[in-house]
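4.2 Preliminary Data

To establish feasibility before requesting continued support, the project team ran the inverse folding procedure on a target of 267 residues. The structure was first converted into the token representation described in Section 3, and no sequence information of any kind was made available to the design step. The complete token record follows.
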């Protein structure tokens, strides 16, 4: 399999990393991508902080034989509980970039603001701290999008739409900005907009994280660079193929299209 000169690894429990890998690929298509998912242990939300830290460390370590220039933790829960341990172990040799819900830009745009997240994140001190730090003067609502991450992971469009409809029913009228507090949710942002209406602005963080990743490895965006794309897929540490099911989501479809002819896809 051809390898690029430089590559970035993405770690997450599941498909949430697709949107983040896609955003970086759009800015620097010449960077090789190593995608490390953990299907044996997802979702991370119900797990203890100690379990999450152990699992995300294992997923990140599994990428090291591929010599990544940086590792992106494309999971809010894993960033909260594992980012410190990852940086202590891997930096400065390998920069580690985390994800944070885009509450600051949403609050700056004016409220009311809603934050859709998993049940665990919605009730967490972490989310309350972000709201207190960046949206203390803005009317903000935390909404548990029950089952949405799992529905996205399953690729069941009916289940996805049912979960979105439920979360939309729990979102107060008049909300102007919606923060996606789980990396999975961006994969169905178009369906969320359809449920809430065009008057609501979606705030997500893949592009900001991609730009931060480039800064950490000393590169500028170069969208016309020669394409590399996905070089490896790891499933709970095991080498895997690119699942054709990723094509159910625009970000996954773009990554698959870029990999066509260079990988064997699984059904």
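Position-by-position output of the design step:
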């Amino acid at each position: 399999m051809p390898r690029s000169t430089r590559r970035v690894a993405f770690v997450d429990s599941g498909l949430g990393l697709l949107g983040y890998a896609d955003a970086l690929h759009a800015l620097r298509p010449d960077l090789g991508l190593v995608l490390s998912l953990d299907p044996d242990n997802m979702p991370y939300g119900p797990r203890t902080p100690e379990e999450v830290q152990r699992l995300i460390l294992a997923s990140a370590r599994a990428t090291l034989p591929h010599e990544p220039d940086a590792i992106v933790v494309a999971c809010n829960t894993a960033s909260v509980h594992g980012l410190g341990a990852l940086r202590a172990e891997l930096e400065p040799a390998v920069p580690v970039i985390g994800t944070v819900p885009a509450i600051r830009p949403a609050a700056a745009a004016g409220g009311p603001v809603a934050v859709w997240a998993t049940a665990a994140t919605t009730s967490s001190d972490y989310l309350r701290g972000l709201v207190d730090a960046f949206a203390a003067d803005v009317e903000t609502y935390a909404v548990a999008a029950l089952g949405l991450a799992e529905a996205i992971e399953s690729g069941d469009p009916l289940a996805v739409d049912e979960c979105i409809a439920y979360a939309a029913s729990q979102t107060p009228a008049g909300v102007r900005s919606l923060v996606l507090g789980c990396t999975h949710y961006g994969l169905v942002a178009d369906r969320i907009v359809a449920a809430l209406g065009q008057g609501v602005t979606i705030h997500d963080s893949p592009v900001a994280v991609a730009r931060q990743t480039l800064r950490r490895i000393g590169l500028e965006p170069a969208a016309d660079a020669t394409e590399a794309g996905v070089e490896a897929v790891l499933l709970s540490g095991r080498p895997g193929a690119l699942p054709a099911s990723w094509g159910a989501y625009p970000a996954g479809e773009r990554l698959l299209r870029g990999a066509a002819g260079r990988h064997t896809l699984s059904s």
